[in-house]
Amino acid sequence: MGEGYNGWTNYETWIVNLWIDNDCGEQEFFRGQAKEMYDGVTPTTCFTRPEAARIRFADWLKDYWEEHRPELPGAYGDLLGAALSAVNWDEIARHYIDAVLEEVS
Predict the structure, then answer these.
(1) pLDDT tens across 75-94, in order?
(2) Residue 3 clears pLDDT 80, i.e. is over it
(3) 90 CB contacts (<8 Å, ≥6 apart)?
């Protein structure tokens, strides 16, 4: 079972990315945010510019999805929270930062 899902870490990561990618407006919004993160960071002694942007964007993605999570009562809310906690935000961030890198090269 540890093989991942459709090339992603797990189903939860795949489905979040799928929903973003299947909506043109959402996709443009998140690509714009990834570009803004990339443009706003500088390399450090520890991280390259793409790595620093990926880390920052992954944190932003997680916060964004948690802030926009609907309040659901009982088990439904618990299940949604568990699913979101399983998402590999770094993997989605890498996907978007890689797209930014393709645009700027």
Answers:
(1) 999 999 999 999 999 999 99
(2) no
(3) 54, 55, 58
N residues, the chain: 105
Q: What number of other Cβ atoms are within 10 A of residue 42's Cβ?
A: 8
Q: How far apart are CA 71 and CA 53, in angstroms?
A: 30
What is the rounded CA–CA span in Å between residue 89 and residue 63?
10
Distance of alpha carbon 80 from the chain centroid:
17
Provide φ and ψ at 46, rounded to 5°: -95, -30
And the tokens for 102?
A: 């393709």
Quick one: the chain helix, strand, coil %, rounded to 5? 70, 0, 25
And the tokens for 95? 């996907």
pTM above 0.70, yes or no: yes
Burial of 50 (0-12, 13-18, 19+ CB in 10 A): middle
